[in-house]
Design goal:
The chain contains six helices and seven strands. It has 198 residues and is an alpha/beta fold. The protein has one domain: Maf protein. A hairpin with a 6-residue loop joins strand 5 and strand 6. It is found in: Cytoplasm.
């Protein structure tokens, strides 16, 4: 199989965190485009199913306007049990999420979808990571909320920032919790691209 140029890859996300994580494995997409899709969960939709649907929908939306490219769609979901936590858009939402996560385990699902240019293949990987937060005091919650690091973060969490100090343990992929599972993404992309790691 002929190796492709990374100029033929589109990242269907405007997340600076994902761009930085890709750079960590020597990947610089040719284009970075935001998909702007409806991210409302379906009734009774499970967190894993939702993350897969979102990753696929983002990739498909971009590929519909940019045929001929490989497209990488990614979605990260924070869940308590079967409950999908929202991307915190205001301090009230963030406070609800942080109170819910305080002192308990939660799961972070990140799905990666790679579409090939001829639409013949659709590769999907989902990584599940278990995270446990310490019991947070009201003072710690206020301090975190005041930082505004929760803005537009799934479950109001930013573990590479201040929320990192609340993590008692993490079982799974640290990079996946930030927004992109590096091992799985590397494996998917290296099937088609020369990633020049050496």
């Amino acid at each position: 199989m002929k190796e492709q140029s990374l100029n033929n890859l589109i990242l269907a996300s405007s997340s600076e965190r994902r761009v930085a994580l890709l750079k960590q494995i020597n990947v610089k997409p040719g284009l970075i485009l935001s998909a702007n899709i409806d991210e409302t969960p379906l009734k009774k939709e499970l967190p894993k199913d939702y993350s897969i649907r979102m990753a696929k929908s983002k990739a498909e939306k971009i590929q519909s306007s940019k045929p001929g490219y490989f497209v990488l769609g990614v979605d990260t979901v924070v869940a308590c049990g079967r409950r999908i936590l929202p991307k915190a858009e205001n301090v009230e939402q963030a406070e609800k999420c942080i109170h819910l996560l305080s002192g308990r385990r939660h799961r972070v699902y990140t799905s990666v979808c790679l579409l090939t240019p001829d639409k013949s293949k659709q590769h999907i990987r989902t990584v599940v990571t278990i995270v446990k937060f310490k019991c947070l005091s009201e003072q710690e919650i206020k301090y975190y909320l005041a930082s505004e690091e929760w803005k537009n973060r799934a479950g109001g969490c930013n573990i590479q920032g201040l929320a990192g100090m609340f993590v008692l343990f993490l079982r799974g992929s640290h990079s996946s919790v930030i927004g992109l599972p590096l091992h799985e993404t590397y494996c998917l992309l290296s099937s088609y691209f020369n990633l020049n790691l050496y």
